[in-house]
């Protein structure tokens, strides 16, 4: 059963215990500003294998490698001018850049799934301090069983993976609430591989050029693990609801009038004032609460597809996708 260490009350204990556990090649539950990660030494193949075993992930996908700062990232990857500009503007923060691996880098091929590129991000706050103290990059997918809802609190991690890991660091609720935005620059053009906790509009403003969305068939090689059913609660998910049936759970946004709401099993509003950042921060916790109501269906009212709404709608479409 995992031990919990509160990083605000016991920061030194948290760094010491986390460093020792990581050095033993074991994954830990690590808070970041986006979601909680299941973090392990990105240079240690046994440690990376344990991430996959712990999540029950059926196949190896490239994992995001977390660094303490841009200087550390430059030791592992080669930056083009646009990527460097984005890193300088948004790191530490919810942006992942896919970059060519620097030859001789000791990031293990299991972390990159054998690709010649690496996804790198510099997280805010404690996670960055831990990486600085540990001295090596940490590979960290979200800390949840494969295909399930991502964890945005230490309790979520505990309920899902507490039996399978030995240490969970607790920093309270994740402030952003959805995973990082993933961008890859190719031949001077920016491509959005995953919408996330940094709005596409902000990236375009800093870069002074548009982010290309993928169109048509999903580029499986670019974003494996981003396909079909994902972020799935136990209940079925129904989108763009304007009415609910008795006993359905309702998750709405911005106090819309939804017919039948008075007979719903539970009614939650992601942001009564219509703030998309607040909605992103509440999303996964509310999905778990709606699921916990026992309703067979969770109905969502529509959410604007701008700013962080792009990431929220991406996760909702995956939650609603047909299950395998
Ligand atoms: O917010 C986040 O990004 C969280 C927290 C814990 O930091 N991490 C996270 O990591 O979501 P992970 O490993 O689950 O993200 C993996 C995604 C996959 O969709 C994968 O395809 C993409 O990142 N990715 C990683 N490396 C890549 C690469 N070299 N090329 C293309 N996509 C890559
Ligand atoms: Mg995940």
UniProtKB/TrEMBL annotation:
It is found in: Cytoplasm. ATP binds at residues 57, 61, 117, 150, 194, 231. It comes from the Bacteria. Keywords: ATP-binding, Cytoplasm, Nucleotide-binding, Nucleotidyltransferase, Transferase, tRNA processing. It holds the Pfam family Sua5_yciO_yrdC. GO terms for molecular function: ATP binding; double-stranded RNA binding; L-threonylcarbamoyladenylate synthase; tRNA binding. It catalyses: L-threonine + hydrogencarbonate + ATP = L-threonylcarbamoyladenylate + diphosphate + H2O. GO terms for biological process: regulation of translational fidelity; tRNA processing. L-threonine binds at residues 34, 66, 121, 140, 142, 180. Required for the formation of a threonylcarbamoyl group on adenosine at position 37 (t(6)A37) in tRNAs that read codons beginning with adenine. This is Threonylcarbamoyl-AMP synthase. It comes from Rhizobium jaguaris.
């Amino acid at each position: 059963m995992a031990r919990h260490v509160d990083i605000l009350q016991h920061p030194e204990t948290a760094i010491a215990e986390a460093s020792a556990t990581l050095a033993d090649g074991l994954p830990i539950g690590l808070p970041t500003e986006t979601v909680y990660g299941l973090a392990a030494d990105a240079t240690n193949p046994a440690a990376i294998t344990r991430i996959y075993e712990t999540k029950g992930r059926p196949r190896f996908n490239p994992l995001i490698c977390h660094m303490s700062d841009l200087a550390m990232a430059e030791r592992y990857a080669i930056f083009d001018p646009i990527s460097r500009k984005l890193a300088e503007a948004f790191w530490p923060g919810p942006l992942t850049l896919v970059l060519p691996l620097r030859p001789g880098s000791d990031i293990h091929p299991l972390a990159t799934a054998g690709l010649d590129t690496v996804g790198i991000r510099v997280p805010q706050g404690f996670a960055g301090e831990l990486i600085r103290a540990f001295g090596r990059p940490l590979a960290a997918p979200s800390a949840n069983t494969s295909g399930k809802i991502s964890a945005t609190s230490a309790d979520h991690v505990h309920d899902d993976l507490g039996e399978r890991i030995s240490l969970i660091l607790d920093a309270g609720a994740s402030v952003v609430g959805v995973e990082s935005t993933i961008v890859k620059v190719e031949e001077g053009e920016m491509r959005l591989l995953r919408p996330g906790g940094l709005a596409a509009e902000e990236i375009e403003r800093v870069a002074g050029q548009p982010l290309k969305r993928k169109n048509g068939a999903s580029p499986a090689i670019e974003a494996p693990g981003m396909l079909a059913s994902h972020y799935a609660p136990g209940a079925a998910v129904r989108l763009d609801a304007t009415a609910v049936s008795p006993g359905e759970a309702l998750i709405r946004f911005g106090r819309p009038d939804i017919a039948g709401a008075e007979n719903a099993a539970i009614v939650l509003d992601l942001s009564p004032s219509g703030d998309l950042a607040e909605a992103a921060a509440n999303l996964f916790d509310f999905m778990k609460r709606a699921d916990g109501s026992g309703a067979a269906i969770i109905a969502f009212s529509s959410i604007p597809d701008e700013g962080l709404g792009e990431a929220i709608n991406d996760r909702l479409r995956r939650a609603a996708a047909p299950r395998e």
